Amino acid sequence: MRILFLLLTWLALALPAAASVPASEAALRDALAAGAAPVVKASTAPGPQRTERIEAELVPMSAWAVPGSTAVVAIRQQIKPGWHTYWRNQGDSGGPTTLTWSLPAGVAPGDILWPLPERQRLQSLMNYGYSGAVFLPVPIEIPADAAPGRSLPLRVTAHFYVCSDEMCVPEDLDLALDLPVRDSAAPLDTRFGQAIQDVVAAAPRPAGIEARVALTDGRLVLTAAGGPLAGAAPRWAYFHPFEGGLIDHAAAQSGERGPQGLTLTVAAGRGLTSNGLKGPISGVLSTDLGAWEITAEPGAALTGVTGDGAIGDGEGAQTAAAATALPDFIKAAVFALLGGLILNLMPCVFPILAMKAASLSRAAHNPAEARRDGLAFLAGVLATFLVLAGALLALRAGGQALGWGFQLQSPGVVAALALLMLAVALNLSGVFHIGAGLQGAGHGPLSRLPGVAGAFFTGVLAVVVAAPCTAPFMAFALGAALFMPWPMALAVFLMLGLGLALPYVLISLNPRLLARLPKPGPWMETLRNLLAFPMYGAALWLAWVYGRQTADALALLFGAGLMLALALWLYGRVQAAPGKGRAAGVGALLAAIAALGLGVLAGKAPAASSESGAPSSRLSSQPWSEQAVQAALAEGRPVLVNFTADWCVTCKVNESTALSSARTAQALEQANALYLVGDWTRRDDAITAELQRHGRSGVPLYLVYAPGRSEPRILPQLLTEGVVIDALKDAID
Question: What span, in angstroms and rounded, lies between the C-alpha atoms of 381 and 375?
Fold first, then answer.
């Protein structure tokens, strides 16, 4: 009898395990190959059930159920860090969560109301799933004859497929809930009711969006219009199909928006490339404006879904959006601080070092004034970062595809900065003085804006000119900040500004360091004149950038610069002879008016063609496009992509060294690699979207694609020819 009892017990435990095999045979095969066996947790008692990897519980949205109504319960998952479960379409591996119900007569469960999944990239695979705390809501039909005052025993076996980066484990948990029945309106459950209601409210649903799909040259072209897409301006969009095999989940999805909707293009999966498009395709269209269920019928593309700029697929945005969690926000803030510190060493900041050195030398032996100037410089940096970051976030929220450094994509801004740098240089050369009255009050011979105003102005210039280039650590911080809630985003930008200003502030607050500078004397006049030349260089550099951005308008900027120099020279003559320089004063005014007029005309100059505005390079290159990348990879060729801009000094330094050497050219030839250049000197929405997809907000960005690999290798922002050559060799190994 004992043997018979043990046999029956074994069968009772084994049968539920057999019934809980995941729907994905491939997933189970992967798990068994990894040495994992299904883990079964059998229990019918209400409350949470646990394994080593997951805790689950059946919980209600409302405190009780009402006869004849629909109640909502949810499978609450608390997944151990480093592990995840899956959406209804698991992607390239794994298996979806499934439910086996055991309910009283008349009680009927509905389908899971799936929340929008995370995209979980693992090397060349892309999965769709969940991590952390997850609620899977399920509607439950309550019969009209359910007796108030009693409880309905709800029982379900939840079949999970719990995976990490190394292994997968099928796990079954038996969950129970005794749901009270009353005949009055039910409030939300005090424990998880609000959380479940939020998931239900946010879950993707149909929204009147019309969609069409076509299969062309191995790529699915999906167009969607109407409903919430009409008149909207999404920054990114991504299509999650309900069925596997329809698309290449790991491939990038490129898109374009229009006045009525959008177009998405994605590589087709094996199921379509082998069998063709047989019928409609259903799934979830996810955007930064919302997510909706759509069904795309085979047919010609809809109208009004192109022409308003490129959009990304949001993968970099989704990664960055995860930084809204406090630990990741802290990480982004720390990276921003480090990036700001390193930015002081980047070539972009060299023109501003002259102004920093001038102000430090002037106030070196007046600690009170040095402290005041240091804090004013910090205020100027932080205020300008707030203005630029606020404008960038507001424009992006309005659908503009912009990135960090957007101000230097405008020829008008570049022209104004070039003239401003010229004026600063003339001031340092002694052509005219600002605040000359203070010069004779014992404040030294160095001419510049006096006191707090001068230090604040220096901070403003430092940000406007230097910040468009990105330094190490800045890429993650800014990429994350652009997709954070705005208070967190502004905090990250302020940390970047703090890093940029910190060295100057620390020196100005340290009397011992300041005391090591020489005593005031004639050397300060020499230093002032010498520091004018970096500012002349900055003006010439900005004029060169302006010439690359515009078509035959450089003469207007040169004319404005000439008139500005004449006006300031005449103004200096008036300063040198107070009360006796009326003619010079009139001449200065007329010259200033001429400079202003020419400057306005220069700011309105037409854009240069893409050919004339393309960055120069000693390497043979072609313009970047996603199509060019894919075509080269299809031919088995590696691809080196350089996203650059003429106003990015770091980019120019890299191009004149690592990207122009004979060894680099030889490595490109040996690898049969294609070199593509993405020019971001003027605004380009396609490049902005590509930067965003890789979690970046500005240039430089260097990518090396290898045939057979789904994702490119991202190179450092400061290149050496060895780094480039090694990456090209790795791409062909």
Answer: 10
CB atoms within 10 A of CB 631: 13
Token pair listed for 182? 């009353």
Count of helix runs (H) and strand runs (E) in the chain: 22, 26
- 603's CB contacts (< 8 A; 6+ apart) are 411, 412, 415, 416
Query: Helices 367-397 & 486-508, crossing angle to 10 degrees?
Result: 160
Are residues 162 and 28 in contact, defined by beta-carbon separation less than 8 angstroms? no
207-229 pLDDT, tens digit per residue, is: 889 999 998 888 899 999 998 99
Reduce the DSSP state of residue 171 to 3 states and report it: strand
C-alpha distances out from residue 404 to 60, 384, 475, 512, Å: 46, 13, 10, 37
The tokens for 655 are 């191009």
Instruction: Collapse the DSSP code of 533 into the 3-class scheme (helix H, G, I; strand E, B; otherwise coil) and give the result.
Output: helix
Adjacent-strand bridge partners of 137: 74
Give CA–CA dist 567/596, Å, rounded.
Answer: 11
Q: Which residues of the chain have pLDDT under 70?
A: 1-44, 123, 315-328, 346-366, 392-410, 434-451, 465-486, 511-524, 527, 551-552, 577-588, 591, 594-595, 598-618, 647, 649, 683, 695, 697
Give yes or no for a cis peptide into 700 (omega within 30° of 0).
yes
Q: Is this structure's pTM higher than 0.70?
A: no
DSSP-assigned states of every residue in 172-202: EEEEEEEEEB-SSPPPBPTTTHHHHHHHHHH
CA–CA separation, 329 vs 641, rounded Å?
30
Q: Tell me the pLDDT tens digit for each residue of 602-612.
A: 666 555 544 44
Torsion sign across C-alpha atoms 247, 251, 253, 254: negative
Q: Which pLDDT score is estimated for 143?
A: 93
Q: What is the pLDDT of residue 562?
A: 84
pLDDT of residue 583: 64
Whether 657 and 690 have beta carbons less than 8 Å apart is answered as no
Quote the distance between the C-alpha of residue 414 and its chain's center: 25
Contact 167, 94 (CB under 8 A): no
Q: What is the DSSP letter of 167?
A: -
Secondary structure class of 14 (helix, strand, coil) = helix
d(CA 633, CA 641): 13
| DSSP states of 95-144 | ---EEEEE--TT-EE----PPPPEEEEETTEEEEEE-SEEEEEEEEEPPT
- Identify the burial level of 37 via C-beta atoms within 10 angstroms of its C-beta, where 0-12 means exposed, 13-18 middle and 19 or more buried: exposed
- Specify the length of the chain in residues: 733
Question: Collapsing DSSP states into helix, strand and coil, what is residue 325?
Answer: coil
Angle ∠(330,333,338) on CA atoms, nearest 5: 125
| Cβ(256)–Cβ(263) below 8 Å | yes
